[in-house]
Amino acid sequence: MALFAVPNIIQDLIPAAASESINPWTWNLNLNASGLYEYLPTMHALSKFALLGACAVQSVMGLPESVERREANLLKRNVDDWINRETPIAWEKLLCNIGPDGCAVRNQGVPAGVVVASPSRSDPDYFYTWTRDAALVYKGLADAFRRNYTEDLHTQLKNFVSSQAKLQGVGNPAGGLNDGQGLGEPKFMVDLKEFTGEWGRPQRDGPPLRAIALIRYAKWLVENGHKAVANAQVWPTIENDLKYSAQYWNQTGFDLWEEVPGSSFFTIASTHRALVEGAQLGAVLGKPTRAYTAVAPQVLCFQQSFWNAREGFVVSNINGGEWRRGRDANSILTSIHNFDPSAGCDANTFQPCSDRALSNHKVVVDSFRSIYNINRGIAQNKAVAVGRYSEDVFYNGNPWFLATFAAAEQLYDALLVWKAQGSIAITQTSLPFFRDHVSGATVGTHAAGSATYNQIVSAITAYADGFIEVASKYAHSNGALNEQIDRNTGQPIAAPDLTWSYSAFLTATARRDGYIPTGWGAGQATALPAGQCQKFEVAGNYNLPPTPVFPSNLTPAANAPVEQITAVPTGCTNPEKVFVTFNERASTSWGQVIKVVGNVPELGSWDVNKAVPLSASKYTSGDPLWSITLPIQAGSSVQYKYIRITNGVAGVSWEGGDNRAFSVPGATCDIQNRWDNWR
Ligand code: NOJ
Ligand code: NOJ
């Protein structure tokens, strides 16, 4: 199945003089049973030997710089070679895990467009579909598709849209689609039935990540003249996920590693991106976007509170999970998945080249240097195997392939932006990161062509390649990638053929290859709101997406883009709907929910089944505050009451007294606040 061409690897970094006569990667290629080639694992011994030889000769001649140069060239060639071999394998094996025809999952009840996390059915059982894994994998596929159109990949993307439209309607232990809560369910059976076992739920990164993946494809449709298709077939699914993001972003949930309930940096940043990019696409499709544009800056505001300025890293989990020290690949994944060069090296959006993200890269990578035996004795300026977080005990706590690739990807991203802007800025915050690699680096802006700039570019290129080399060293010799790498032996362990591992390889190496995915409007979304962060949550109404039907003529336009998608709408002018925040103080016990119901359609027209749930995200024992924001038709005369619902169903109790009443003003952009106490 040769669906994809192996990308050309950039050769421009090898100085001509460096060409060596020995090729340490003289692989023996053999076709194995599954048609994949295998190579002999002797390459490392060989390359190390060649390297030692080269060093010895050079130091006798007293030319230490050339030793470095030689070492870097050798590293680059080794990495080039491995990438060239691994790329078609990673493509093939990634697609093997997608239904219905993927080679590892076919005839096993996996519908089209469903990503199985790993074919492994025991130790660990990963034969499920996780919304996060699927979304990240499809985000990568959509970017690859935008780079290089193929019909097969197009079919995969359409399948993904259809599978997710259906999945959104599947009721599950996290809830249903009615109030959106079911969208926070982390995983499903591969046939899209609910998974009823105990699990860390909800996980609130799933909906924004899925929105981001679907938006990538919807943008392609718009740019290629198929806007009506984006509108009718893709937007309904995107919209549910965006509404979820705008409604539930300030409620705690489990982190991406499914272990700690709280607020997770990755989840918050993914939510920010989804809201911004959703507004960007929604504006082009003529959809209401104000909920997204109003909430997005507040999410970005909250995102800043994860930063530990004193130690220069992102505390990945707050409001829970503090028993971990917070140094976590969570944050490195955030920087690569929110990469957008239009934001330059912006720190608020945690761009890969921002001073914060680079300082964080160092702190997170360093946290793994001494804890894994396989990293022992590796110099501070060299790449090591990277795990999830140092306190991890899952399979004894090990390095992960996807985290190691992510560490490389962040650096490739940074290099792309530095080269594009022709300079590298070093601040006090990022100085320790740079000093590890260029000991004489100083705070300031170093222009392309300066000695410091050149030294940094070569050192960081080699450092980034080092992470790929580390992964290559521990990969199976036939190119297969597991989830983890044994911390003592270096053996690939835990879930075999983890789909996300292949995706992480492909996205990191695409960046190395110079491919920058289309942006998400980050450059227009870096500003923080004035004053304190406000944590309002906007209630959404959720609708089961119609079964997508794709016309057969969805081909690329000859003169694409026929329509540019750039502007991110801001604020609001003359809105038909006015945002009203209902704040109700009501002491409740576990399992009880406060809802608001009233005479206008937005408040359910007095139907308790359509009452709008308030959020308890600001509830404390000292201040039992429930609140929710929702758009109501300007000029409406509203009557309403709060109800208390116990354990979901039967028990509805109404507030006493007369109906509460107020008039919604005419079109205004100011949020109207109702402050009430249960009576
Ligand atoms: C526990 C692990 O730590 C977590 O990350 C994983 O998702 C679950 N087990 C399921 O494998
Ligand atoms: C465990 C990881 O912690 C989680 O992020 C992932 O979604 C599942 N495994 C499935 O790959």
Automatic annotation (TrEMBL):
Xref: SMART domains: CBM_2 (SM01065)
Catalytic activity: Hydrolysis of terminal (1->4)-linked alpha-D-glucose residues successively from non-reducing ends of the chains with release of beta-D-glucose
Protein's UniProt keywords contain Chaperone: no
Keywords assigned: Carbohydrate metabolism, Glycoprotein, Glycosidase, Hydrolase, Polysaccharide degradation, Signal
Lineage start: Eukaryota, Fungi, Dikarya, Ascomycota, Pezizomycotina
Pfam families assigned to the protein according to its UniProt record, in alphabetical order: CBM_20, Glyco_hydro_15
Enzyme Commission code: 3.2.1.3
InterPro entries: 6-hairpin_glycosidase_sf (IPR008928), 6hp_glycosidase-like_sf (IPR012341), Carb-bd-like_fold (IPR013784), CBM20 (IPR002044), CBM20_glucoamylase (IPR034836), GH15-like (IPR011613), Glucoamylase (IPR000165), Glucoamylase_active_site (IPR046966)
Family according to the record: Belongs to the glycosyl hydrolase 15 family.
Organism encoding this protein: Podospora comata
GO molecular function: hydrolase activity
Protein's name according to its UniProt entry: Glucoamylase
